[in-house]
Specification:
Helix 1 crosses helix 3 and helix 2 crosses helix 6. The chain starts with 6 loop residues before the first strand and ends with a strand. Strands 1-2-3 form a three-stranded antiparallel β-sheet, with no helix packed on it. It is built from six helices and eight strands, in the order E-E-E-H-H-H-E-E-E-H-E-H-H-E. The radius of gyration is 18 Å and the shape is globular. It has about 210 residues and is an alpha+beta fold. It has two domains: about 40 residues, no CATH class; about 160 residues, no CATH class. Bound molecules: zinc ion (2 copies). One zinc ion (ZN) binds next to helix 4 and helix 5.
Length: about 210
């Protein structure tokens, strides 16, 4: 934008990639390539991650749980790259979709603004998986992003009712289809997070 503020950015390499971002673009020439850095507001990034993770028709309370998980990941993460924080591949998280303000992912971020999951007062990067198979797992050894939280094995009502659905992912932390099932039965995002991350708290940023 003329003011230098955040703008819609389209990065296009014909035939290879075409991605839209919302933020401020900075281009850094490296010896053999250009590094494109996009500074994005945290809430925009949260909405973008939820939009990338969303399955059609996911109820809003499940999206809000996903938004708190995404924000916790961003708040807890150490920089994963030299000179910038996140890339936009699965190495970090998907940051490919800028959700329009009337979309459910945008509202999920807005309605949980600044809320993160904490364990003993510190935000951690919560693990989650697509479908747990009926019961989630605890960690057997600490994960670098978990800040000492080892998770707990809990029943997942949706997956237990749908044993034909194959397990997808590591089954640690929130089960995405289980979260959608809880929301469809009237659970709030806080109840969903409390179920899949027992012993943690929902806290407003900045933490301490
Ligand atoms: Zn990365
Ligand atoms: Zn499940």
């Amino acid at each position: 934008s003329p003011s230098g503020g955040p703008a819609e950015i389209l990065v296009s390499i014909p035939g290879k990639i075409e991605r839209r971002y919302h933020g401020v673009l900075r281009v850094t020439p490296l010896p053999s390539e250009l590094l494109l850095l996009i500074e994005t507001d945290r809430e925009v990034a949260v909405g973008s991650i939820v939009a990338a993770e969303v399955i059609e028709q996911t109820p809003i309370e499940a999206l809000k749980a996903q938004a708190v998980v995404a924000r916790s990941f961003l708040a807890a993460s150490e920089p994963r790259h030299k000179g910038f924080q996140f890339c936009d591949t699965t190495h970090c998280q998907f940051l490919r979709h800028w959700p329009p303000p009337d979309s459910a992912p945008y509202r999920a971020a807005e309605q949980t603004k600044d809320l993160v999951l904490t364990f003993h007062g510190s935000p951690f990067a919560p693990l989650y998986s697509a479908a747990c198979g009926g019961r989630t797992r605890a960690l057997t050894e600490p994960d670098p992003g978990s800040r000492g939280y080892l998770y707990r094995s809990v029943d997942c009502a949706y997956c237990l009712r749908h044993p034909q659905d194959p397990k997808r992912g590591h089954s640690i932390g929130m089960c995405q289809q289980g979260a959608a099932g809880m929301a469809a039965h009237g659970a709030s995002y806080r109840e969903i997070l409390d179920h899949y991350y027992p012993g943690t708290s929902v806290t407003t940023l900045p933490v301490r």
